[in-house]
Design goal:
The protein is of the alpha+beta class. It is 48% helix and 18% strand.
C-alpha cells in the first residue's frame, strides 16, 4: 500500500469515529520525565481520616438531666394548675348550689313560721269560740273553766296558748258573774280555781296577769281564816267555787283554772 492509500484509510476510519486523537502528556508527566518534580510529590497523598467524635462530658449529662427534670416538673405544675382550676370551678358551682339551698331553706323556714302563726291564730280563735259557746259571756268577755290541774304559771301559759288569759275580774259586776258561773260549774262541790291575780313582783302589791294593778278584791273574811294570810310564801290567788271568795295559795300548787277571752263582737 502506498502512502496515499494509507492516508485514505486513515481518513475513512476517522470519519467513522473509529480513531481517537492522540493523548497529550500532562504537565506533571512532562516534568516527571524531565526530573523536575521531587519524589515526595510523586507519592499519593494519604486519605484524610475524620476526627473521632468525643463523648459528652459529665457536666453536659447533668445539665441535660436537670433540663429534662425541670420539663417534667413544669408539666406536673401545669397539670396541678389545670386540676386546681377544675376544682375551683367545682367549688364555685357547689357554692352556688349551697346558696340556692340556703335560699330554699330560708323560704321553707318562712313558710313554717307562717304556718305556725296561722296555727296559733286558729288555736286562739278556737279557744275564744269555745269559751263563748261553752262558758259564760259577760259583756265583751267570755269565761271558761278548765278542769286540768296546773300550777299558776302552767295555767297562765295554757290560757295564753288558747288566746286568752287567766280570769281577771276587775269590778263587782264581773266578780259576781264569774263567781256565779264557777259555782254552777262545780255544784254541789267546792273546788278552787286559779285567777289571774298575784303579788309575785312585790309582797302585798297585787297585779293582774297582764301586769295591771288590782283595784277590786274579794278576799274571804272569816274570824278563823281571813285572807290573805300566806305572807311571802303564798303569792297566787284562787277563787273558791262555793262562795266566790279569794284565797292566796302557794304558786306551785296544782288546781283547775279559769280563763277569760276578749270577744269584741259582743260590742
Amino acid at each position: 500500500m502506498g502512502a496515499v492509500s494509507a492516508v485514505v484509510v486513515v481518513l475513512c476510519l476517522c470519519s467513522l469515529g473509529l480513531c481517537a486523537p492522540p493523548t497529550q502528556p500532562s504537565g506533571l508527566e512532562v516534568k516527571k520525565a524531565r526530573g523536575d518534580v521531587p519524589d515526595q510529590l510523586l507519592e499519593p497523598a494519604p486519605e484524610h481520616e475524620p476526627e473521632p467524635t468525643s463523648q459528652l462530658s459529665d457536666f453536659d449529662n447533668s445539665y441535660n438531666y436537670i433540663l429534662s427534670r425541670l420539663a417534667d416538673i413544669d408539666q406536673a405544675i401545669h397539670k396541678l394548675n389545670v386540676g386546681h382550676y377544675t376544682l375551683d370551678i367545682k367549688v364555685s358551682q357547689m357554692g352556688d348550689r349551697l346558696s340556692r339551698i340556703d335560699g330554699k331553706v330560708i323560704e321553707l323556714e318562712d313558710n313554717i313560721q307562717e304556718v305556725d302563726k296561722h296555727s296559733k291564730d286558729n288555736r286562739k280563735e278556737m279557744g275564744r269560740l269555745e269559751a263563748c259557746q261553752k262558758g259564760r259571756r259577760v259583756g265583751y268577755k267570755c269565761y271558761l273553766v278548765y278542769r286540768n290541774f296546773e300550777d299558776y304559771a302552767g295555767a297562765s301559759h295554757k290560757c295564753m296558748d288558747r288566746g286568752g288569759r287567766l280570769a281577771m275580774p276587775r269590778d263587782r259586776r264581773e266578780q259576781e258573774a264569774v263567781a256565779d258561773y264557777v259555782k254552777a260549774f262545780y255544784q254541789p262541790g267546792n273546788w278552787p280555781v286559779w285567777l289571774g291575780v298575784n303579788d309575785l313582783l312585790s309582797e302585798g302589791m297585787y297585779l293582774f296577769d297582764d301586769g295591771t294593778r288590782v283595784s277590786y278584791f274579794q278576799w274571804r273574811k272569816h274570824f278563823l281564816s281571813s285572807q290573805p294570810d300566806g305572807g311571802r310564801r303564798e303569792n297566787c290567788v284562787a277563787m273558791s267555787s262555793d262562795d266566790g271568795d279569794w284565797w292566796d295559795h302557794y304558786c306551785d300548787r296544782t288546781m283547775s283554772y279559769l280563763c277569760e277571752f276578749d270577744d269584741r263582737v259582743a260590742l
